[in-house]
Amino acid sequence: MSWSNQSGGGGPWGPRKQGPWGGGPTGGGGGGSGPGGQPDLEELLRRGQDRLRTIIPGGGPASGRGFAALAGLLIVGWLATGIYVVRPDEIGLNLVFGRYVGSSQPGLNYNWPFPVGSVSKPQVTRVNTTDVGMTAAAGDMRMRAENNPSLMLTGDENIVSIEFQVQWQINPARAADYVFNIQTPQTSVRAVAEGAMREVVGRRNIQPILTTDRSVIEQEVRQLMQEVLNGYGAGVEIRLVQLLKVDPPSQVIDAFRDVQAARQDQDRLRNEAETYASRVVPEAKGEAARILQEAEAYRERAVAEANGQASRFKQVFETYRAAPDVTRERMFLETMERVFGGADKVIVDQNGSGVVPYLPLPEIQKQGAAR
Q1: In whole angstroms, what is the distance from residue 178 CA to residue 175 CA?
Q2: Over the stretch 53-98, which tens digit does the pLDDT of each residue have?
Q3: Residue 93: phi, psi to the nearest 5?
Q4: What is the DSSP letter of 335?
Q5: Nearest to 129 by CA among 191, 199, 189
Q6: What pTM was computed for the model?
Q7: Beta bridge partners of 243
């Protein structure tokens, strides 16, 4: 039944002599109030009926056309709420009754409105940063976490303190995995990063970790993290792993620094020794090669001279056997020529005539050459 707003009617509580709380109407405008000055319920219902008549065409709430028009407007308005905008740094994930049905690109898109459908819009271009081995206190410098995750065991059973940073973002091609497969992305990435770093550090000795293998460790940790997260279906892409601090534990850092200084001195002395050896050894080799070449030349010269003397002796012997007298006379004359060729000579006649005068041509030639 419908409630009519007649002058004599009072609604479900009978005549308008009293309101639902037992009080009569107050005020001259026909509006009543209950305890504490609150409006009368009957008056509120009457005013609502008047407003419906002004909004709904057809005369009143009992009109079928009015209800149909109102229902159509409500349905159109509800469907219009399904229009949504995806920003350039986002991807829209459409859900219908809680089930993922597809994604939408940046721009104006549509999905079933609430409560039938919903949209999740993760930011796929934002680079997130996760620090491992440290915590950031408000207004203070970074300090180590209470459980001290920076302490790690190396392959040679030493302990090293490593603080590093991981930069990652949502994989645009697997944004649905990121939204639906992991509940706490930061915690998951931090746990995977710590586990990967411990595995990589556990395969190395402490000395390369502190000195030469930092870039190699970063690459290996990044690759291992990506493989583990892909296995989880996390939809996360690791962009960068950066070692911020690699030191021995604070209790033994002074001893490690002394050892490091000693190793540097050892390397310096070894380099100096290798430099000296690289300079002296070639010089010694060159000197040895020169001596060997001189010895070879002397041997070849001595052997050649000996062979020549032996050949000459054989030739003289053959000549002597053919003509002994002539050969003996020739050998005597050649010997005298060699003996007296460079000496001052005085020729004396054996017959008693005394000194034989002669022209000393060799002496004259020497004097001319001297002048």
Answers
A1: 5
A2: 665 555 444 456 767 777 778 887 787 777 778 788 788 888 888 7
A3: -110, 115
A4: H
A5: 189
A6: 0.51
A7: 164
Under the banding of pLDDT at 50, 70 and 90, the label for residue 15 is very low
The answer on pLDDT for 30 being more than 60 is: no
- Which whole number is the average pLDDT over 114-142? 72
Other CB atoms within 10 A of residue 163 CB: 18
Which of 229, 250, 271 represents a domain boundary (last residue)?
A: 250
Query: Which of 57, 95, 91 has its CA nearest to residue 73?
Result: 57
Measure the CA–CA gap between 371 and 369, rounded to whole angstroms. Answer: 6
Which residue among 192, 219, 250 closes a domain? 250
Say which DSSP state 37 is in.
G
How many C-beta atoms lie closer than 10 Å to residue 23's C-beta?
A: 13
Angle between helices 214-232 and 185-201 in degrees, nearest 10: 130
Quick one: 100 and 170 in the same domain?
no
User: Cα-flanking dihedrals φ and ψ of residue 170, to 5°?
Assistant: -75, 135
Q: Are residues 92 and 175 in the same domain?
A: no
**Looking at the structure, do residues 132 and 233 belong to the same domain, yes or no?**
yes
Asked whether residue 331 is assigned to any structural domain, the reply reads: no
